[in-house]
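If your schedule permits, I should be very grateful for your opinion on a structural question. Thank you for your consideration; the sequence and its tokens are set out here:

===
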Amino acid sequence: MNSVLHTEKLCKSFSSGGVQQHVIKNLDLDIRKEDFTVIMGSSGSGKSTLLYALSGMDKPTLGKVYFGDEDISALTNDQLAVFRRKHCGFVFQSIYLLDNMTVFDNVMTGALVSQKNSPELIRKAEELLKKVGMGEDSWKKYPNQLSGGECQRVGIVRAVVNDPQILFADEPTGSLNSASSRDVLDIFTELHGKGQSIVMVTHDIKTALRGNRVIFLSDGAVVGEYEMPLYGTDDLRARREGLQDFLDRMGW
């Protein structure tokens, strides 16, 4: 099976005012290796809930989530924390950089969980920062000295410095202006081109165009999927029109 993750009869419910709210309902889903999978749907469709269940950040109410052959839904919270550090990278709309740490130290918080002060990881962090446009003059700055786009670039480097097998992103451009959004999406596109498996939640069609597989959720169930070529290998206008047509059919 060419899957990095898959679910079996995945369910997630919450209790609100004594009433059970079923957010994810008996969902069977394969997340393929080296795909840039985009999860879309209307507000309240279960997009972020699904992302958290797939990544081990939240446990399902029923059903199973497999990473390869391992049922991660059966792991304890401590075991899940180790799993996430070892296999996953995370990029969120809110970047969660540590205010009292420099840019470089924030990146190394991701690296040091696995190999303390490894010279190879230090060199890799330096190379990645330069690659996303964060030169050496920025490494000693603190988050409050950076723009939102710069903070998000640092967050991406922190997420990928350990070579995660899968990168999760929840509305990664939601709080950025158009120029910063484009820069961040270019980084994601480059990572995907090198074989990085990515799962991203978004409500924005420009962002979704960067993926090669779009999964549409409605009321906690997958109601449609749409496949696209690798970004940049086809006509952008036709790509957008095709995705827009799919979303229109889904009632987006």
Notes: The chain has one domain: 32-60+69-250. Residues 32-60+69-250 form a domain with the Rossmann fold fold (CATH 3.40.50.300).
